Every structure is written in C-alpha cells, then in structure tokens.
Amino acid sequence: MSIESFEQGDELPVWAITRLLARVEPQTGSSRRGNSRKGNRQKDEIMTFKLTRRAALQGMLAGTAALTTMRALPAWAQAKGGTLTVGLTYEIDTMNPYSTGFLGDAQAAVIEGLIAPDGEAKYVPVLATEVPAIENGGIVVSDDGKTMQITYKLREGVKWHDGTPFTSADVKYTWEAVKDPAFIAESKDGSSEVEGIDTPDELTVIVNYNTILPTFAATLFTFGIMPKHLLEGTDLNTSTYNETPVGTGPFKVNEFVRGQYVETVRNDDYWKTAENGDKLPYLDSIIFKMIPDTNTLITQLKSGEVNMVVSTPYSQASQVQGIEGIEIIQGPQLSWQHLDFNFKRPSLADLNVRKAIAMGIDRNVIIKAQGGFPKAIKSPVVPVFDFYDDSTPVLAFDVAAANAMLDEAGYVAGGDGIREKDGERLSYAFMVQAGRADDELAQQVIIAQLKAIGIEATANNQTGVAYREARYNGGYDLIYGRWITSANPVYHDFWGTGGANNGQSYSNPDLDAAMAEFESTLDPAERKVAASKFQAILAEDLPTISLVNNVALIAKPVALKNFIPNPTNMTNFVDTAAWYVE
C-alpha cells in the first residue's frame, strides 16, 4: 500500500510517517533562494489559493456529517434531559473567564456576555437585546471621528444563578474589575479604551470610548459579565468565584476539581425559551473531563466514559468512525497551526535563521501526517476573512536555498552536522503541548526537516498549565501552537509589543503601527489596507511561521440535536441551551 493511497481522514501508520519523513532531502539545483524551479513549483502548489469568505465557509462546511456512523445510542434514545460528558484536551486552571485562555468550552455554557458569535461567525445578542451598530443607533461616532459611544439595552428578567437580578451595574463592575491593575488578567483588551460607563437605568449601558475600537465585539463584554453583588470588594485573583463562578448561562457549576473535571447542571431559572415555547436548557448536565492525552481521550470515547470530543485529532479520526452511536462532523475554524520563536535566543533573533527555518519546512508533509484535513496557509489571517490578502509573499520549501542562506550568514556545520556561529549552536528546545497527537506529529516532521539544514530541535513537551505558562513566559526556544480568534480578531495580542499572548519578546514598531491602524478604524476599506500591511510585515520579519488552517473534527452522539459548530474562540458551547437528545 502506498502513502498516496491514503484518503483524507485515514490514520497514517508509523511506516507511512517514516516514509514521509524520509522524503525530506536537500533539493538539487541552484543554491540561490527563489531560483530553484522545484522550489517555485512547490510554492505554487502549496501557496496558491484564493477564497471568498462565503466560499471558504461553504468549503469547510461541505464535509459536515460526511464521516458518520448512524447507529442509535441506546442511553440517549428518544429522550430529553440526560448528561453529556465532554472530553477536553487541555486543563482548566480557573473558571474566571478573564484569567485564562484555557477555559473556553466550560465557560460558554456557564457565563454569558452581552453578545456572542454564532455558527456563521456573526455576532448575535445574548444578554443585550441587539448588537450595537451605526445603523441601529447603538454606535455613535464623534464629529471629529476620534471617539465613539456604544449603547447596550439589556434583557429584562435575567437572573444570576443565585437568583439575584442581572443589571447594568454588573456590566459596569466587570469593566472596573478587569481594568484594575491589581487584577492579574490573561487579557485586558477593550478595558483601557473605555473612558467611562454610564448606567442611566438598570437595563441601559452607555460605554464611552476614548478611541475608535472596531474590535469592541471581540473583547471585554463578549467574554462574560461578572456579578457585582458577589465580587465587589473582594480580591478577584483569589476569590472562590474562580472555582465556582455564578453566571447567567444555561448551566451552573456544581463541582470543579482542578485538573480533572467541571460538572455543570441545568439552570432551572434560565431566561431563554425555545421558538416553540419550551423552557431551556434541555439537557440535565454537562460534564467537562480534562484528558490531555489524546490516546486516552479516544479510548474513553470508545468505552463510553465520554461521549463528545470537540477537538478530535486528525490522525485518530479513523478510530472514531466505528464507535457505535457516535458521528464525526467537520466544522470551520478561525484557527491555524504555527511555529513561534523566542527572540531572547540570539540566533533566533537573526532573520536569516528564521527565514532558513521557514524554507526548511514542507507544509505538505505536515498536512499528510495529519490525515489531509488542515490546509496550507499564508499568514495568520485565515482566508475566510474579507481582509485576507492573497498576495502576501511566502517563502517556498527549498532546502538548498535554506542551506545557502545559513552558509552566507556564517553558520558553519560542525562535526555532528549542526551549525554554529560565535559559539552558539543552532540547537533548540522545541515545545508542543504533550498528548496532542497532531501537534506531536507536526513536531516530528519539523525536527526531521530542520536536521536537513543543520539545525537541531529537541522535543521538550509540557502538558496543560505548564505548557501555557511556558507559552506566555517565554520558557522555550521554539514552540508549536494553534491559535483561534474571534470573529473580529485582535492581532496585536499575538505579536504586538507587550501583547497579552506575546511571550516571544518580539517587538516591531512598524508592525505595531499597522495593527493599530487595523484596530482603530470602522471603515472596511481602511481596515483591509492596514491588514495587508501587517500581513506583509509578518511575512517579511517572520516572528511566526503560519503553517496550516485547521478544521474542527467534532465527535458527538448521533442523537444529540441542534448542535451547530462554532468556528470562533467562543467555542462550540455558546448555544448549549438548545441542544437536546432524541
């Protein structure tokens, strides 16, 4: 059986991956970067794609329900209520939505914001009655075009899980708490841009901005509102809220065991009803189990210990297809896999080394190793966005050119084949999140490919919280990750000077300026121009190598209905209230 005979979704055995890695050989031909015919052809094959937002989403959704085992699951048959047990590949370190980027799924079922993105990545009202816009008067721009005011009208009758009414005072408190310098937040995006908040009555919130903030929907009030009556005057860093939060969502936390699981139960006083008048939510409970090792995760899916996995590893999809009562559906994701550099290492701060690494990586091998599901990508702006720039230049896979660049930069191979310069060997600790099979496969591919250009990368993998701490604190040389954005991305978080997710010690004033332009205008044409600027700068300066655009493979019970994949960082659990079983 040949490697080429495998179809998308097939799990590649060890022999196939070994053969793929064996194909990583120095290219023949010109040593000048960009002159190799083979290199240019590969650039065309890998990098030439142009998708409109609609076409890309349709393409991603085309595979929905294509990999399905349509057998009834007896425990769910023709019954509402029930418990859904979800397997997560990450550890939840806190239940405070502003303290972590590793909460996501459980947060969305418990804590609500004023608005949220739906399955088409369009914002819809949640605790607000409508999404503010210039057209409906919710957004008013000042005459000089430098500031704006946003008004939210809140829903009547919403209660916190303890029965206390939800009001505009809670929204104002959330802003005050997040912007407090004493609060250690994963991100304070959207808080410093707010000059002040007026609450003329219990159901009206007027937010006065000191600038134009087109990404307002992706920041502060979307992640979740916190209860003033419980948290005012407390230390939010150590509050019991961080383990047993009180929210307004369809489910409330019954028990949180750090590193093991979060058990949520139905909120019987939830404010929302179904279109047919049914009181929501339908399910009795959702349990989120933390299982960082994907082999264990799939084993528990087979045994029935979990019955839903929202991040099924590409390389293990074939194992899931035969599980009785479980189906796999594909969903779009505003997510990409990437390799990042720590600029504290002198050699990695050298653009020549970063460019050589970029030319030394063949995305096609990574895609094949991951079952053919992800797609090659040019930049961190995924193609579904209107401001994606297809003309962004990308360095093609070209081992000969990579070696020539390192030669010219003075990096000389030693007796073991590893290059060095000024006493520093090009030998790096390479981190991925341990237990994530797809990322570990990509790591194996990259380690083998970098060896061909005289660079040594050694796996130094960490699980859960340890990986997260290293990611944000720069505890790595090379790190592999997968970011996912909101429907209105805030890119400066990743590579902006002092950005919340910038653990790379990277700073580029030109990039800062381009991203500031992008994030400070409401004009779509101006945003597109600014986006093209920062995409070009990222492609030239290479603080990161964007490799592939992800799709979500979601393993769920066939009997679970009303489930709609959500492509954004608000996760698939935004609308759990409507899920039911039959």
Automatic annotation (TrEMBL):
Keywords: Signal, Transport. It is found in: Periplasm. GO terms for molecular function: peptide transmembrane transporter activity. Its main location: periplasm. PROSITE patterns: TAT. Residues 122-502 form the Solute-binding protein family domain. CDD domains: PBP2_thermophilic_Hb8_like. InterPro entries: Peptide/Ni-bd (IPR030678), SBP_5 (IPR039424), SBP_5_dom (IPR000914), TAT_signal (IPR006311). One of its GO terms (cellular component) is outer membrane-bounded periplasmic space. GO terms for biological process: peptide transport. It holds the Pfam family SBP_bac_5. Belongs to the bacterial solute-binding protein 5 family. This is Peptide/nickel transport system substrate-binding protein.
